[in-house]
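Structure tokens
________________
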Amino acid sequence: MGSWHILGAGSLGSLWATRLAQAGLPVQLILRNRSRLEAYRQAGGLTLIEPHQQQLFPIPAQTPEERAPIQRLLVACKAYDAAPAVAQVAHRLLPGAEVLLLQNGLGSQDEVAASLPQARCIFASSTEGAFLQADFQVVYAGRGHTWLGDAAGGPAPAWLEQLSQAQIAHDWSLNILSRLWRKLAINCAINPLTVLHDCRNGGLNDHADEVASLCEELQRLLLHCKQPEAAHNLQDEVQRVIRATANNFSSMYQDVRQGRRTEVAYLLGYACRQADALHVPVPQLQQVHERILTLLQSRGLPSH
């Protein structure tokens, strides 16, 4: 079935790499440059930390410049890094290669797909809980689920059975865009407000009216985008997520707090651009977007 090439050793990339390696499947990590590769070699591999155990996996790693061909590529970097990272290895992709895109939000998947006409791009949406405790050390924080699908249609690939071997809970989705839109809408209703109100997810219970009006606008936008499934009971789902993750800080909150670039352009930015293109009025959404951009600029962080 060929080797898994994993581009990006962030939390999800590291989780998939260690899970696949644990199942005895061939895995190759692709790290961004020689200094990252050197740091990885000094660490001795990737460490997977689970409750009551941790294990080191000396997975082979390389830089994008290697020449070995790639048949299956998992792109696990941030949305804003996806297209530039894939461009570095595009020359290695075999005709008909499969590229799995594990990014938050929407927009980056289309950027990659447009740049790789020779490949089959598979979009993914994951609720797995994982974070990096340190460089090359991933903590598996909560068992989740991954949905995969081909927005252009086509059958489920045979290698899905390898994900079962690796205990990566998954389903092949016939409407992956609906999944991605639903997740984008939930993120747009929660993440930016946690940044603006400087609170954990549960703190949004004090701003219920604001959450409700964002949900209303997002629901209207989803219906205009012909995503009725994603729009269904959106506010109830957002409230459920807020309750279930009440003690957590959203990913956007953590990025801002740690002075990292956010994925706002692929979340709120994407939603506002779609609303604009379809002439759907979303005044609350636009106002929240502008407030976030102003805050990012005041912190010296990129606003795109």
Q: What stands out?
A: Residues 37 and 129 are 25 Å apart (CA to CA). The first strand starts at residue 4 and ends at 7. The mean pLDDT is 96.
